[in-house]
Structure formats: structure tokens, C-alpha cells
Prior knowledge:
Blueprint: E1 27-28, H1 40-49, H2 62-76, E2 85-88, H3 90-102, E3 109-112, H4 118-125, E4 130-133, E5 152-156, H5 168-176, E6 183-186, E7 207-212, E8 225-228, H6 231-244, H7 251-261, H8 264-288, E9 291-292, E10 299-303, H9 309-318, E11 321-322, E12 324-325, E13 335-338, H10 342-359
Parallel strand pairs: 1-11, 3-4, 3-5, 5-6, 6-7
Antiparallel strand pairs: 2-8, 7-8, 9-10, 10-13, 12-13
Helix pairs in contact: 1-7, 2-7, 3-4, 3-6, 8-10, 9-10
Amino acid sequence: MSRFLNRKYEDLEPYVPGEQPQDQKYLKLNTNESPFPPAQTARKKAAEAAENLNLYSDPDCRILAQKLAERLSEDSGLRLTADNVIITNGSDEVLNFAFMTFCGGDKPAVFPDITYGFYPVFADMNGVPYREIPLDEEFRIDPADYAGAGGTIFIANPNAHTGIALRRAQIEEILTRNPEDLVVVDEAYVDFGAESSLPLLEKYDNLLVIQTFSKSRSLAGGRLGFGVGPKEIITDLQTIRYSTNPYNVNAMTMAAGVGVLEEEEYTRGNCGTIIVNRRYTEERLCAMGFELTDSSANFVFMKYPGVDGGRIYEEMKKRGVLIRHFTKERMAQYNRVTIGSREQMDEFLKVLGEVIEELK
């Protein structure tokens, strides 16, 4: 570090994104990207928007926010408007805004000990105290552990790394047991088999739901996310957004987002394919002797009894297959594998079988 670094960041441990090696061609199953290209309408609209890149993008994201509110209203049965939506540069940005806006001082952040790795980073970066609540022995969140949590609660649902989802009724239990605290539900993977908490906005004013276009909507490279909540909560978040970067979403990404929403059947079809491929992969892995969590995401979380998870990761990489390994103690024997096309999963399973035969 340089001698100019602000001392408050001296001990900051940054989030580590999935590796993106360029030394060879890999079968890339480590960052939970979609194997499918963006919808054709999304690509067409993005190209059209490129003609006007000399102009600033709309800071209000009006067209996208309105279309998104309409789509979410149709899906949830709510009557949402653009005032209930904030559009951001990936869902990470609105998560960071939530830590900035609703945590600090006597309001700590509260989240599981095994979850999305950015939560402790956002807390540390913003000087927010936080408390981690351990998952149970089966890597599950127990809503009872969050009763009277005394802080802003962050729940990834399905949970990051494990893929295990809470039912909507379980999220509601957390909401009812924390009426004076905000509950932030991060639904990055919700479209692959979990229940969204959006319908609960009809009953609870202490709920913020965050989703992304990166996973199910095939726009990981576009960086587009959003938050949905009561107007007053969204207004608070917009204050932070306008105080940092009001032009946070570029014009091409905004246009692509509109195009995605206009091809909803394409998105749903891709999600259905991923679910089928996940189940196929799970069956094959179980037959090989792997132990898995009950994933409702676009990935599986797996370990092979008696074989070190780090060794599996290393040997797969040597053979040109990237999966994600985490060194945190409770996860060290597991690897996370993104679900791709059937052809990709067959190649992964073939290489994995060779690795396991060599290591066991």
C-alpha cells in the first residue's frame, strides 16, 4: 500500500471475484454466469443506444424503471410503480447503498456466517459493525436465530455458496420478529427455483428486495441490478445514489435491460433449462458419491468424502475446467459449480470423474 492510503482502509480485505484466467481456454463454471446470450431484443436495443453515447444516460432510468415495475407487478400481484424501484450498476451497488443508508452507529448489519462474500466487505468499507449468525450443521438458515436481531438483516435467498433457499413464510417470520429493523433479501438466484419475497411488500414496510440481471437475464457483463421496496426506502437509497453517481447505469445497459424485459419467455425458458440441467448434474454427482446441498440456484455446492476440496479444484483447473473453491473452514471441503448447458455439464462430469478416480 502507498503512504497516502486512508488509515481506515489499512485492514480492509477486498472481495475476491471469481478468477478470470487468460492463459488458455477454460470450461468456465466458477462465476455463475448464464451459458445463454442476452435476448436478441436486448442486443438490438443496446446497439441502437450506442449511437447516442455522446449524451449522458437518463439518471432516473425512467423507461426501464417503469417497465420493471410493470413486470414485477404482474409477477407478484402488487401495484408497483417506478417509485418503488431503484436501478443500479449491478446488484452489488444497491447492496452497498443499503449498507451505507441503513447501517452504522447503533445499527449493525446482521447476516449469516456463510453467505455472499461482499457483505462483510461492504460493512468494513463503510465502518459498519456487523454480526454473523452461524448456519446450522446442514448449512441452513434458521429464522428463529434472527428474532430481535437488533440490526439491519441481510439474507441471500437462495443463499450464496450453498444454494439453499428459505420459503417465503420463513422470510415473513424474520420480518415479523424484527418490526423495527429493515430486512434486505438478496434474490440474485431466485429465478432458478425459489420463492420471491416480493409479494410480502404488500404487508411489510421493513422489506427491501434486491435482484439482478446478471444471472437469469444473461447480462452479467452489462452490470444491471435493482432494488424494490416501499417508496420511502427507495427514496433514501436514491439520495445516496444521487450523492455518489447519478449516471450510474450507462445507456447501452439500460436499453439492454428494457430489451430483456420485452422477451420474458426467453428468460423463463433459459431458467427452465438450467433447472433441468442442475437436476441432471445432481443425479450424476450423487451417483459418483458426491454429497450436495439442496440447491435452488444456478449452481451446485458439492464435496466428495475423504477427498480434499482444494485438490479437486486444482486438478480440475489443470484440466481446463474452472470451478469455485473457498478456503473458509466450514466450506473448505466443498466446491461450487455453475450449471451451464448440457454439453458443458457432460464435459465437466467427464473430467471430474477422471479427477476423482485419481485422487480417491
